[in-house]
Task: structure prediction
Amino acid sequence: MTTVDEVKSEVRPSWADLVGEDGSKNPAKTLAVRVLNYVTNHVVAHVPSYRVRHAWYRNVLGLSLGDGSGVYMGCFVWFNGPGQVRRNGSVLGARTRINRDCCLDLRGPLLLGNDVSVSAEAMILTGHHRHDHPSFAFETRPVVIEDHVWIGARAVILPGATVGRGAVIAAGAVVSGRVAPMTVVGGVPARPIGVRPEDSVDYRLDEPFHLFE
Ligand SMILES: CC(C)(COP(=O)(O)OP(=O)(O)OC[C@H]1O[C@@H](n2cnc3c(N)ncnc32)[C@H](O)[C@@H]1OP(=O)(O)O)[C@@H](O)C(=O)NCCC(=O)NCCS
Result:
């Protein structure tokens, strides 16, 4: 897996795909990206076949999906164009599962390790607006989720967060900054509420994929 320091070294703007060389918007490109967005999130995300969805995420968006990783139905994928997803190098590691109706923000780099479990309706965000900037500037910050992390239902992971190996994010928690490995955090903002035993992360998320999930 890519290390945290390799991807967290910079804050990157990511409107490049929609903006012409002279800084003006490119209407044809903007329309194409909007259509691609619609098809990805309102058609492909609801096709009841992992094979079809994964082929789209890999080949059209350029998302790297490790062996045995799975994105359930209803996932909302935020992106500015396939070139931008490819350039960011966003990756879901091996056997990592994204449960139903999650939101993956791929406008900035998103790196999930192996055997990561993301529960239903969780949001992982890599982009936001600078509320302290005169033009409400948009920026992205990489998010890194290391191996064997479990993210509970409806948790929100904010831009720039790093969740260490084996950590648990309680249902409904809001995470910013760094979560230490093997720590259980909960609440808003998320604070430590427990510790995971070292021998509790010896599993592989290798259940089969079923149609209609
Ligand atoms: C994080 C979680 C695993 C903790 O379980 P646990 O280790 O059994 O923890 P406990 O229930 O003993 O709670 C420990 C403390 O954390 C608090 N806590 C537990 N879950 C919390 C949550 N989601 N948000 C905030 N605080 C929480 C408890 O109130 C308790 O606080 P206290 O010590 O002041 O009484 C569990 O609460 C959770 O959120 N599970 C996710 C469920 C889910 O998303 N399921 C769908 C996918 S299968």
User: Anything to note?
Assistant: The pocket of coenzyme A is lined by residues 119, 152-153, 168, 170-173, 184, 186-187, 193-194 (CB under 6 Å).
